[in-house]
Amino acid sequence: MKALLILLVEDDSMIGLMIADLLKDMGHEVCAIEVTSDAAVTAAARYKPDLMIVDARLGDGSGVSAVDEILRTGFVPHLFMTGNIAAVRALKPDAVVLEKPFREADLVRAIQHALDAAARGTAVRPPDFSESLAT
Fold it and tell me: How does 17-39 read in b/e, with b if 16+ C-beta sit within 10 Å?
């Protein structure tokens, strides 16, 4: 996988820093870690990321709504991370969703799936990346 410019949207600063470190260790560049939906929209316009990894539920609102707003100006591959996959699936049945907590391998698979779906231009319901946590 080539190095990506990634916008990370996570309202818990400690979790955001840990995920950013993990992404950097994987060879990616994190252009910003945003904690609000408004800041995410601004950062997406500013940085034009290759991928967005977005917490579905933010303290000030919804990461899902932020992505919807960002996508109005052009498509950006994205995935949601959440502690409640069912809530995201209710809003976005075909979204790539990664359940928290997750392992590095789960993140790698979710990133690849988001990129593959974007390249195909299709919205195919992805596998549930939380399944590997049970093993």
Answer: eebbebbeeeebebbbbbbbbeb
How do residues 20-79 score in pLDDT, each as one tens digit?
A: 999 999 999 999 999 999 999 999 999 999 999 999 999 888 999 999 999 999 999 999
Please give the tally of structural domains in the chain.
Answer: 1
Q: What is the pLDDT of residue 128?
A: 54
Query: Where would I find the beta strands (DSSP E) of the chain?
Result: 5-9, 29-34, 51-55, 57-58, 61-62, 78-82, 97-99
Domain span at residue 89 reads 5-134
**72: CATH:** 3.40.50.2300
Chain CA centroid to CA 74, Å? 16
d(CA 93, CA 120): 18
Single pTM value for the model: 0.88
Token output for 8: 């990370």
CA atoms 56, 53, 30, 76: torsion sign: negative
- What is the distance, to the nearest Å, from the Cα of residue 63 to the centroid of all Cα atoms in its chain? 9
